Amino acid sequence: WRARPLSLWAAMVKYVFFDVTVAGKAIGRMIFELYVDSVPRTAENFRALCTGEKGLGADSKKPLHYKGSLLHRVIRGFMAQGGDITNHDGTGGESIYGGMFADENFQHRHVGPGVLSMANRGPGTNASQFFITFASAKHLDGKHVVFGKLVEGLEVLDTIEATPSRQETPLHPIKIEDCGEMEKDWKPEVEQRQQSEVAEMGYLAHIAKLQRAANGGTKVKFKKRKKGKKRPASTREG
């Protein structure tokens, strides 16, 4: 086994988005990074459900698309759940593979807010339902497949968490008004800032190097005094 070049890993990174409304009012966009390298099958299922490119489901004959579906369950301090693209109430769902598919692995953990993970009814029952954590949920490790994380739109997630609910059901519809895949060259603001800072640091380092070269270009050196001759040491350019 050989490690893949970092450039190849970077080329594999996929970002998808949800444009969310509450009671018909737009609250913003959430952008997720998908772990295509470690859980490719699970990540691809979610990505394709965001784009709707697979058409109708083999079982439900309904669009395999998150667009128009609801976040039907919200528990403050825990998570928001959605992805029921067939019944829209948490009782349904369908994967792009037809029905359900197996747990890929449990490599990633439910640490912090914004973790994107598969909802299920037990081992090997993944379909289209997912949840997004509001906080760490380590008791779900080893039971639910984590396949991504929120990279932009934490304020949208906060608004979702603050939406009033009764018995875990939001009192106002929380809808995925639109969704899809980000452009291939898109990068999170944090990463863009980091790259800009690295570029700036590289530029400053280059300037400093030029300054050192300019200041140290002419050096004073002392010649060794030859035997038998008495004369002061002279200078020469180094």
The separation of the N and C termini measures 51 Å
Q: How many extended strands? A: 10
**By helix and strand content, what is the structural category?**
alpha+beta
Instruction: Categorize the overall geometry.
Output: globular
Give, in order, the helices and strands: HEEHEEEEEHEEEH
Q: CATH fold name of the largest domain, please?
A: Cyclophilin
The low-confidence runs, each spanning 5 or more residues with pLDDT under 50, are 1-10, 218-223, 229-238
Strand order of the largest sheet: 3-4-6-5-7-2-1-10
EC number: 5.2.1.8
Function: PPIases accelerate the folding of proteins. It catalyzes the cis-trans isomerization of proline imidic peptide bonds in oligopeptides.
GO molecular function, one term: cyclosporin A binding
Organism: Lotharella globosa
Features:
238 residues; two-stranded antiparallel sheet; 10 strands; globular; disordered N terminus; Cyclophilin-type_PPIase_dom
Write the SSE topology:
Elements: H1 6-12, E1 14-22, E2 25-34, H2 40-51, E3 73-75, E4 79-82, E5 115-118, E6 130-133, E7 146-152, H3 154-162, E8 165-166, E9 169-170, E10 174-181, H4 189-215
Antiparallel strand pairs: 1-2, 1-10, 2-7, 3-4, 4-6, 5-6, 5-7, 8-9
